[in-house]
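Something for you to look into today, if you have time. Could you write out one complete protein record for me, on any chain you like? The space below this message is yours for that.
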Amino acid sequence: MEKKKPSFDVVNEVLEDCILAYPVSSFIISLYKQYLQRGSLSKKQLQGLYGKASKIEGLSPGKLATLEALIHKMPTRIKSVVPPRDSKPEPEKDEVAGELISVILEKVPEHKRVVFLKTRFDSNDALTPTEMADLKRIAKALGIQVN
């Protein structure tokens, strides 16, 4: 059996150099602990590490270049933009339906179906043809002239 040469871990080396340069930095310490636990860091974390490491004098430029190459190799996750809610134009209110509702409620103010349709009408919900037929039927039953 051949022994594999131990691979050179750039991220670990840079983390150790950063710990020596910034011994009280909680950011570097938390990155180091997470790297030991999971064995990897996210792209954002590596970018933060690169920012800290680039300020250290005497750090090998090869290590920085390798770290930068690792960062560029990782995929960039982009969240999709939520479309604005105001994109839908408000439906135009049917004036005939509004007049029918108000006239019917003047005669019978507690008519449950018409009160329900009035709340739908007031909240800018379009009335379906069946609901319009109901309004006309109720108006006709009450003796109200329908146009």
Observations:
- Residues 92-141 form one domain.
- The helical segments are 10-21, 26-38, 43-53, 61-73, 95-107, 112-122, 129-141.
- The chain has two domains: 10-73, 92-141.
